Amino acid sequence: MDQIKTGMLIRKMRLDSGLTQKQLADRLNVSDKAVSKWECGNGSPDISLMSALAEIFGTDIQTLLTGEVNKNESEKGNMKKLRFYVCRECGNIITATSEAAVTCCGNRLAALEPEKAEKDDMLKVEDIGGELFVSSEHEMKKEHYISFAAYVADSTVMMFKQYPEWELQFTMPLFRSGRLVWYCTEHGLFYQELRRSAEK
Predict the structure, then answer these.
(1) Domain 3-66 has CATH 1.10.275.10
(2) Collapsing DSSP states into helix, strand and coil, what is residue 120?
(3) Residue 112 CB: number of other CB atoms within 10 A?
(4) What is the CATH superfamily name and number for domain 79-198?
(5) Burial of 166 (0-12, 13-18, 19+ CB in 10 A)
(6) CA distance linking residue 192 with residue 200, whole number of Å
(7) What is the rounded CA–CA span in Å between residue 125 and residue 130?
(8) Mind listing the pLDDT tens digit for each residue in 143-165?
């Protein structure tokens, strides 16, 4: 931990939150002198206080420890670069439009790297008169199934949750182009390009 960087960040976040040193100290059950000491870089919060500090400031412990807020300026929230995170413990699905520090069930999650589907593994897409009907013969057993599928384009994302022992099928609006993405609980994340008239 860099005491000076962490102290400067605590000061900035405190001021951004509209808190005085005393108000922050009261929330943490410490003295305002302790907060002043941290902000001057002459000491640092005890590790046991980091979780409470992160909660007060709406950040994470890692940010406080490094004293740096890393912003994803280059990506500007581009939907085409949507990242998917899946918790292996509870199945939670989390998305982010740029790099993010994501945790669930006490574990840090890595963004899944989508793999281009081979012809036999691609989802079947049919035009049914103004809508697309998407289906697959992928097995849907409790130990091996597709847990979700999503349509991703420049400014749109649509998520379709799937369940074991159900057939994988859903309808969606007829978009000209985009990408279908789906997650197999055993083999990971896959994608296929979606072209006009359901060409692939």
Answers:
(1) no
(2) helix
(3) 15
(4) SOR catalytic domain (2.60.40.730)
(5) exposed
(6) 7
(7) 13
(8) 999 999 999 987 889 999 999 98
